[in-house]
Protein: alanine transaminase
Organism: Oncorhynchus mykiss
Amino acid sequence: MYSRREVNPMLRGIRVSPQWALQRRSEQITALLQQGEQKPFKEVIDISSGDSHRTGIKPISFVRQVLSVCLYPELLHDDTLPVDVRQRAQRLLGECDGGSVGSYTDSCGLPPVQRSVAEFITGRDGGVPSYPHNIFISAGSQTALKVMLKLLVRGKGVSQTGVLTPQPYPHTLPMLLEEVGAVLVPYQLSEEQGWALEPGELHRALTASREHCRPRALYISNPGIPTGHVQSRKSIEWVIQFAAEERLFLLVNEVYQDCVYGEGMEFMSYKRVLFEMGQQYSDMVELASFHSISNGIMGECGLRAGYMELVNVDPAVMVFAKTLLCTDISAPVTGQIALEIMVNPPRPGDPSHSKYTQEILTNRITLAQNAQRAWEFLIGLPGVSCQPVTGGLFIYPRLNLPPEAVEQARSDGLEADVLYSQSLLDEEGVCVGAGCEHGQREDKYHIRLCVLTPSATLEKVLACLGSFHLHFLDQFSQHA
Amino acid sequence: MYSRREVNPMLRGIRVSPQWALQRRSEQITALLQQGEQKPFKEVIDISSGDSHRTGIKPISFVRQVLSVCLYPELLHDDTLPVDVRQRAQRLLGECDGGSVGSYTDSCGLPPVQRSVAEFITGRDGGVPSYPHNIFISAGSQTALKVMLKLLVRGKGVSQTGVLTPQPYPHTLPMLLEEVGAVLVPYQLSEEQGWALEPGELHRALTASREHCRPRALYISNPGIPTGHVQSRKSIEWVIQFAAEERLFLLVNEVYQDCVYGEGMEFMSYKRVLFEMGQQYSDMVELASFHSISNGIMGECGLRAGYMELVNVDPAVMVFAKTLLCTDISAPVTGQIALEIMVNPPRPGDPSHSKYTQEILTNRITLAQNAQRAWEFLIGLPGVSCQPVTGGLFIYPRLNLPPEAVEQARSDGLEADVLYSQSLLDEEGVCVGAGCEHGQREDKYHIRLCVLTPSATLEKVLACLGSFHLHFLDQFSQHA
């Protein structure tokens, strides 16, 4: 029989992540609770991922109304639904082959969705033009990133493609790089400076990497995943110069672009800064920018859609990108429709405008207030430090754990932050993310919490975390 | 700048398919018609793909009603919707984290969907048990097939994984094999015997392949894509024996299992036959079976969901499959819900049962009648032969083209069936698939037509095809 040791050797290194193990544990606990087992808690609260609906954030009504009409067009005649809902559904259905969301779309997505995305980007970037033929609709940002990585990968040994990757990184990135056969080249973000990118460190990482691979791309996430750091225009300019000098392809994850709430902060896209730096850059630097409906305020993870904008990419290479997206066939049409609404929401004067705006605003306020509240609470705990967050969905506190806890984890074959997260889950029914998933320096432990959750849920989580934390410290001090 | 010659060498061989070029041409013609250009036809009819909604086949109401309620749960209170629609939606929403289809699911899909699929298979296979943990929900059968292929691929040169592949094959298969780095090992189906699989030919292909690769898997599609051939139990038994003797992993595409309409024919799954052959086979032969909501009677291509059932696969290998599916994140929840309904339709006594049954039956009858009608028409055309079809969505006639047409095509750098299809599109606005996409022996030309389309549309297509065909023959005879 085909056994583990016969599996494609390129994939054999892929391991079940600690996060996956934590989520399985969380499901097992939920199953036990449902079978009537007594625990000190009634349900598991999972705030480990940026999946805000999971813990009770409500979907945006307009998105769901339009989708329900598109799926069941009889609702076009339902007068209880706002007229702009029905008009939007009718327009989008008119763009689907045979008037059905059940038809395949082009591998790059429905043309009207590409057009709306291009208009959205042009508006967002103060008029820097975006063109529909550079927009690739995909089943989420990760699918599109995988396509670009596949195209960039080549060579073996010292000529193998290296991708400069921030540490901490989005937890799915290492597996993706491994799957396509790229070398992860880490550059450390500066926690002390609020997780900012340090030019000297990026230079160091690039130079060091040349001994074992050929760095061809630079991956950035802005706002940072999971750090929440929002890059300044100056920092972006520096990165673009660096990419130009070193001929690096920029892969920029901008999925949290609508989640910037730090005072006086605003999101600035790499594309905009690139074009405002003048032709010597805007004609040359290759850039792929990723966005999706999953992350951010809308939180429609389950519908699966996102887009990639390519800038300065050789048209022959774009043909490959289209063809590869094609082997995954098109993104789900329901997701594409949600994306169209995200980039082209109801306008002032439309019947749904005020409700839409209000719902988005409510989520934004919840996010900003929760981030502040969580930060204040966390820095009050002994042995916890936390950089202020200014964007994104996560807060990423650092745990200064007792040596006895670290020792215990080591003897259990775990990272200390995994031991911490497991214990928190077992004792309090709260599931957080373990920092080791994001790559971290030795003995620097973190946990990850999604703060886009109803405020009452956050309060419950913080209360559990607070009492658990003290108990955990205490336990390992007694132990010593 | 990153140019074509720098693209991952493994992918550089991927070419734009003739089908893609035909569909672009079809879109251009549509755009010209919309701009008011005069043509001998008012619109393009595209029956090249198995995308039945595109040409007007209607979705199944129950599927769409449940989905609309899941997306917009306010509709739970809409009394105009049947009660079983609302009950089903409520139950499925209850299984989604946070009660929202906007939440991620497990990478293998929602557990209730896995359970319903396993029950469906058990029922279909006369009680041969199927287990939810062997069911992997994916964003379509192709995504799951790619995961399995990735796992099976290894080695270089003579040890590189070869996949025995029927010729004609599903047109997306060569690109998929190329992308993952597997060697396509063709075995020719026998057109003269209604596209049946010939044991001798499979032996020949296997033996010959050993000179340049290591055959590790055997790909089958039953009912055949695009041939429509339905395999007999005896033929399946032979294939299973062959796979057992040669230690081949069976990759079985069974997406057309609900489209068998040949008189006295029935679909027999590989899994069922395997288990009915006794333990010496059922404990040993490794099998992956694929099904989806896209193909077949339901035709929900745009919603993107399918499943793979693994049999006799090492649990350690299954963990890899789960992890790889995970890098694509979960299948869209809307698609998963449609899948749940496909495998678990309304039952007798349910308010929606009669309508659901009627709609499915209507599509089935349309399919069977159209297939018969198309076959009778096609064999009446000079220079056309066609095997009777007994399953699937396509009819796949062979064209005996004048040598002058073949010559003309050659000088245009095209296959003769592409020239034929292009001319048909240009002159009559009918888009069919060109046989060369499926791999064919030299000078054996075919076209592919989807027959699941409204009967009136089929009549229009046949009329256009008939007059075009005579004109095409005539043109090249005059030429000579």
Q: What stands out?
A: The domain at 104-343 of chain A is CATH 3.40.640.10 (Aspartate Aminotransferase; domain 2). Chain A has 17 helices and 14 strands. Chain A has a mean pLDDT of 94.
